[in-house]
Design a protein that fits this description.
Low-confidence stretches: none
Number of helices: 19
Shape: globular
Number of strands: 19
Bound molecules: ligand BES, zinc ion
């Protein structure tokens, strides 16, 4: 039986318990070459179905080297190619020699000119289903694995960082070195992550550091200085931090997400370097995943809201603990704005606006939106409001304790909720959020005196977060926008959160300077949160400009971002 629509993994077959990896990183060919050893929970016989994408399989053997029969099926568009291995009796694992493709969907290879430090850079992004392009494995979050050892052979002037514990570096030749890691905590395969580049650390506290290319290291250390206090706030709220260290790696601009919660080593976009710590909620978010997502994990992409909805909720609790209720409410208000954009985008595909989805035959990268984040947040907030905070906080602790290091479905959550707080789900109308499209009319609303004052124009924004909330309620009126720009210098702000919101307003108001502002944003970042809305708006108003800018910017985008932008450009030209 295959319980995950995005994996060939079969629950009746042996389950991988741990893996060993040994890979040589070849920058000139853009490949990884090497092997993976899979160790099973229990000895088994018969078929073993693994996920692969664009891999060249060289050999499959038992752990002690006896050749095994295998068959690589033709590639399917979303799933990739099933690798079926025939296991002899009492097999305790398998060893596979293989190579990756230069087009591996989990990898981005950057030229020296595309980085801040002028050295080659490589990084992985495995969530949701790209780990299979790095290595043949059971690529479903239901099957958690530890890493006995991971060995990366890399050019010696570069360094490998992995979302794992470092075991040091061994010299291997004049020009290459081997970086060694292990991961004792069991993780879903989408959390496999590494990067290779010329990066340097800045200590933030005994258990936190930030890694960045040299020219950005000081700026990053300033921006993320609050990591340790966030970690403490998280532990107060949700219990012990189970992952030892918490480090942050500042990624090149092409990184397609705001952040990625790779365990022990959050990957974060350089677009958060606003210079004033105004975008550190991204760190609060990725850190919160240490509990919600990494400790308690969605069983498949259908339950993605269990990862992201809980994490947005946890992120705002951390923000509230550190900076107060008003700040958390501002973030909730701005999240509500993002949710509306997503609901509008999926007007023709309402099934994607449920929390519990059925993504059989759908690429999870295509279903990605703010819905699981912000609608999920609103459901959890509703449950909190109906239960009362003390009871709800006890539940959260119990939930994290009960399902730690497990992967669960929405039903597992609902059943446990019913045992702990009987009747709460019904009183809160939880199933309306979970199984119906759109947003229930009685969804909670962000509320605070400060928010009211800002929205009514009775108060001037005092900081970037307040300014953002004001912008999000501003109508696209030319005079008003000119006034705001001269007052707040919006078109020259470093913060892309502010600048992209302003550029969208300029475009909607039909202001020609919007196109130039859009161009600067689109060349500066590859973060999809900014690319999607700006290309959408631009393609609607000035498709030739959208095309032109994309032609110039494309080389600096990750292939996931390229796919998104190309779909936007195509859609808009079809609508015209
Ligand atoms: N885990 C996500 C990023 C992700 C989701 C990558 C699905 C691939 C597939 C990460 O934690 C995230 O939510 N990032 C947000 C940060 C924001 C909510 C603060 C982003 O990238 O915008
Ligand atoms: Zn997240």
């Amino acid at each position: 039986m295959r319980p995950d629509p995005h994996s060939y993994a079969d629950v009746d077959q042996p389950r991988t318990r741990s893996i060993d990896l040994a890979l040589r990183v070849n920058f000139s060919r853009r490949t990884l070459e090497g092997e993976i050893a899979l160790h099973f929970h229990e000895p088994a016989v018969g078929n073993l179905d693994l996920d692969t994408r664009d891999l060249r399989i060289d050999s499959v053997t038992s752990l002690d080297g006896a050749p095994l029969r295998y068959e690589l099926a033709p590639a399917q568009p979303i799933l990739g190619s099933r690798l079926r291995v025939t296991l002899p009796s009492r097999a305790d694992g398998a060893r596979i020699r293989y190579g990756t493709s230069p087009a591996a969907s989990a990898l981005q290879w950057l030229e020296p000119a595309q980085t801040a430090g002028g050295q080659s850079f490589l990084f992985s992004q495995c969530q949701p289903i790209h780990a299979r392009s790095l290595a043949p494995l059971q690529d479903t979050p239901r099957i958690r694995i530890t890493i006995g050892s991971a060995r990366f052979t890399v050019p010696s002037q570069l360094r490998t960082l992995m979302a794992a514990a470092s075991k040091g570096r061994e010299p291997s030749s004049d020009t290459e070195a081997v970086d060694v890691f292990e991961m004792p905590q069991p993780i879903p395969p989408y959390l496999l992550a590494f990067a290779v580049g010329d990066v340097t650390p800045r200590e933030l506290s005994p258990r936190c550091a930030v890694w960045a290319e040299r020219p950005l290291a000081d700026a990053a250390a300033y921006e993320f200085a609050e990591a340790e206090s966030m970690l403490r706030a998280g532990e107060e709220l949700f219990g012990p931090y189970e992952w030892d260290r918490y480090d942050v790696l500042l990624m090149p601009p092409s990184f397609p997400y705001g952040g990625m919660e790779n365990p022990r080593l959050t990957f974060v976009t350089p677009s958060v370097l606003a210079g004033d710590r105004s975008l550190v909620s991204v760190i609060a978010h990725e850190l919160a995943h240490a509990w919600t997502g990494n400790l308690v994990t969605n069983a498949s992409a259908n339950d993605f809201w269990l990862n992201e909805g809980f994490t947005v909720y946890a992120e705002r609790r951390i923000l509230e603990a550190l900076y107060g209720r008003d700040v958390a409410e501002l973030h909730a208000a701005s999240g509500r704005h993002d949710l509306q954009t997503a609901l509008d985008r999926f007007a023709a595909r309402p099934e994607l606006t449920r929390l519990r989805t059925d993504l059989e035959g759908v690429d999870p990268d295509e279903a990605y939106s703010s819905v699981p984040y912000e609608k999920g947040y609103l459901l959890l907030r509703k449950l909190e409001e109906v239960a009362g905070r003390p009871a709800w906080d006890r539940f959260l602790r119990a939930y994290l304790g009960k399902f730690r290091f497990q992967s669960i479905t929405t039903d597992d959550f609902l059943q446990f909720l019913e045992t702990q707080l009987p009747g709460l789900a019904a009183r809160a109308g939880a199933l309306e959020f979970i199984d119906r499209p759109g947003l229930p009319g009685d969804a909670p609303q962000a509320r605070s005196a400060r928010l009211e004052a800002l929205r009514s124009g009775g108060a001037e924004p005092r900081n970037p977060t307040e300014l953002l909330v004001v912008l999000q309620t501003t109508a696209p009126d030319v005079t008003k926008l000119r006034e705001l720009d001269s007052r707040w210098d919006l078109s020259r702000r470093k913060s892309l959160e502010l600048r992209h919101t302003f550029v969208l307003l300029q475009l909607r108001a039909g202001m020609p300077e919007g196109v130039d502002g859009a161009r600067r944003v689109l060349l500066e970042t590859g973060r999809m949160r900014y690319l999607r809305p700006i290309y959408t708006e631009l393609a609607r108003r000035d498709p030739a400009a959208a095309r032109r800018i994309y032609d110039d910017a494309r080389a600096g985008y990750h292939h996931i971002a390229r796919t998104v932008v190309e779909a936007v450009l195509k859609e808009q030209s079809a609508e015209r």
